[in-house]
What we know:
By secondary structure, this protein is of the alpha/beta class. It has helices at 18-31, 38-44, 50-60, 67-85, 92-101, 114-124, 147-156, 170-178, 205-215; strands at residues 5-8, 105-110, 132-135, 163-167, 182-185, 200-201. It has 9 helices and 6 strands. The protein has a 6-stranded parallel β-sheet, with helices on both faces. It is globular. This is Putative enzyme. InterPro entries: HAD-like_sf (IPR036412), HAD-SF_hydro_IA (IPR006439), HAD_sf (IPR023214), PGP-like_dom2 (IPR023198).
Amino acid sequence: MQKNAAIFDMDGVLIDSEPYWRQAQVDVLAGFGVTATAEDCIRLTMGRRLDDIAKIWCQHFSLDIPSEELQVSIMQAVVALIRQHGEPKLGVVSLLQTLQGAGVKIALATSSSRPIIEAVLDTLNIRKYFTVVCSADNEEYGKPHPSVYLTAAQKLDVAANQCVVIEDSVTGMIAGLAAGMTTFAVPDSIDDPRFAVANGTFSSLVDLEYHLKKTGEIMESMAR
């Protein structure tokens, strides 16, 4: 069945921002006198919404500060790193151009907060491709709850079963599947058995674009 819309996650899909997220958390937490490692970030907070990340660290380290304070500090650090170092992942611009050229509606549905979204769209110069931009910050629940994907589909005016989700994390994959959408994973490790439940797993967006062109699953959706 051909699809009418593509909904992208942002961190880890459009930009390799996970190192920036990890560095920001490690640096900010060090400023509060506690030590977290990159491995701790991967294990405890990867793919989570920023407010959840701050709450997790406050609880994990029993920090005597409002989680909102930690949240703001991490956000500012991430934005600074993205604006200084951010680059699109391999295949991002080509896939977005191909989808847009085929008349496919494109949305962004991310766990990141609005300032981080703005930093990514501006730094990568890809804002023009997205009809809809949704942040899980505006939802009652973050991923793996499907609400941010359902909101994106609603704003695109496309049924959930006519949407393709592109994710890199297990949490996001679960959200896409729970929304009733075809969900493709482009993870750091395609050998991770947890991604077996995705509708397809690819090593890069280049491989995903090749698959979509070959199968016609989405590329010809608006040509009929």
